[in-house]
Structures are given as structure tokens and as C-alpha cells.
Amino acid sequence: MRIMHVLKHSQRSNGHVHVAVDLACAQADAGHEVTFVHAHGSYDELLRDHGVAIATVPEASSPMSALQSERALLHVARRARPQVVHAHMMSSAVLAYPVSKLVASPLVTTMHNSFDGHSWLMRLGTVVVAVSQAERQRLIDRGFPVRKVRCVLNGAVASPREALPDDATIGPLARPSVVSLCGLHARKAVGDAIAAFSKAQPSAPGWHMHVIGSGPDQGRLEALTRDLGMSDSVHFTGPSLTPWRLLEQADVFVSSSLDEPFGLSIAEARAAGCAVVATAVGGVPEVLDHGRAGQLVPASAPEAMATVLRRLMTDSEELARWRARARDNAEYFSVRRMAEDYDEVYRLVLR
């Protein structure tokens, strides 16, 4: 099958980018002809190593540049002759829609960020893919036609990106440790996780917390850490292209998001054998097998999260039990399974 993925960019530290890169590599490995279209990115060498063709189009930042992007994408599509066009995120769906019509190829859109105000634009797809059943229901409740919305749970385990060389900018983690891995912006509510750790850590004074990621809230979060008197125990590592090596060193993984369509880093933490504590929002309960593979707490409730963390940090048997439960059936969230599920979606639209 000839598949063309369209993204605005493929820069590191973006969950939808990681999904698209992994999917394109897995599809090429399975024998599909895959073209990956973007303006710029972090993973071109990896994609080429897997046989994915790279095409660049200028980023649409104004009406004039949008027209140039449209023309460039049409040129790529006429050369690649895709049987399916797959757009990730809203701007890519808008760009890909007229091109898919001109080359007579169905358009698949994946809804990575339904909380975005422009997410209704993903209806342009012949089929709209939700990344969890909770997200699928959310879209239907918003008026998306039931017949158009399919669910494909993201895959993160055995990612092609794991072949990237170790990120030497981040040294070994101080242990025992709690780890957060996400962008540092308001929706992720990392301050709640830091506050929860500060409440639990006096009961386990040897523990550390590592915040892996970057974003506009970093300065505010560092100030919060100082105000809580936790600067010696909470460490900001910055982002990493190879977070699996860090997750494998961690004991507990924490996610304090206010909204999370899926929770890619939670699936990665499960595979690494971290005990998981996460807010019960969006698709997170599905990633944690509804509480069997990790402990769910309410959003915006640091005290509730601290109670769970305190038990894990002070009871080695409790910690070992939840680490084992995280690993159980974690392989379901593999990139290969995700690619096979998308094959079914593609066959559906081609029929």
C-alpha cells in the first residue's frame, strides 16, 4: 500500500510526532511504500533508515505561504501517488484535504489533541481516528458522525526510536526516584506532581524526583520547587530523545495531566517496569487497564496523589507489586500492533 503521512513538523518532544514517526517506520518495515511530509523535524535519518521517503513542504504561516505549501504538497502527492493520505493534527488536515481530493485518495485524520479549539477540523477526514475509546466517545458527543470515528490505541512499546544513540546530555538518575516525562505546560499540571512528591518525600527522605521535558512552565515550576524547599530533591533534566533509558532507571512514574487523550509516556513507563500513578483523565484509564496496571487518582488533587506515592516510597513490597503489575500485558501497546490496527482503518477507507 502507498501511504503518505502529512505533519506540520516532526520535532522531538511532541507525542503526535512520536506516534507518526513510529507508525511510518513500522509501515515501511512491513512492506508499505511510505512518504513522510513535513516542514522540518528531528527524525529524518531514522525514517530514511527504515526506507521511508522524506518530502519537505514550506510551513504554512500566512495565506501566501499556505498556498505555497498546498502546491508543494500536491507536487509530492502526484509523485508519490498515495492510496491513503494520513494527516496528523488540524493544520495538516486542512492542508491535506484539497490535495487528497485532487489525487483521488481518501483522507485519514488522527485526533491527537481533541481539547484544541480547532479540533472540529479533523472532520475533514473520510475517517477520523481517536486514540482511545474515551476520546472516540468525546468526539461522538461533540457531533462527529459515529460511522466516521474509529479507535486505534497508540503504540509506544518497541518503538523504532529506541535505536537512536543514547542521549549523553542526561546522566544517570539519582535513585530511588519518581519520574515525570512530558511537556512543561499548563495542561500537564506538573506542579501538582511536584507538590504531591513534596508531601510524600518527608516519609522517604532518600527519594528524588526527576522532571524530564521542557516547555513554557519550566521557570514557574523551578520557582515552585524552591518555594517548597525541594531544590535538592527535585531535578529538571530537560528533554530527551531517548527517554526509555531514563524510565528504566526510575522506580515510580507519575502523570498529573488535566486532560490526556491517551498518555504515550504512561505506556512507555509500563514497559520500563515503573510503578505508575496517574490522574484518571481521558484515555489514561485505558492505558492503565482501568487501575489494574497502575493507580489512578483524581486530577488537581495533589494530596490524593501524595497518599499513593507515600505508600510506594515507604513500602518496598507495595512498590514491587505495582512494578510487576505495570509490566503485565504492557506489550499490547506495541508500535507493531498500532500499525496493524491502522492497516484495518486504511482497508476500510479504500473499500
UniProtKB/TrEMBL annotation:
MF-aspect GO terms: glycosyltransferase activity
Keyword Transferase attributed: yes
Alphabetical list of Gene3D superfamilies matching this protein: Glycogen Phosphorylase B
UniProt keyword Transferase present: yes
Location of the Glycosyl transferase family domain: 183-327
Keyword annotations from UniProtKB, A to Z: Glycosyltransferase, Transferase
Protein name per the record: Glycosyl transferase group 1
InterPro entries: Glyco_trans_1, Glyco_trans_4-like_N
Glycosyltransferase subfamily 4-like N-terminal domain mapped to chain residues: 14-155
Recorded superkingdom: Bacteria
Organism: Geodermatophilus obscurus (strain ATCC 25078 / DSM 43160 / JCM 3152 / CCUG 61914 / KCC A-0152 / KCTC 9177 / NBRC 13315 / NRRL B-3577 / G-20)
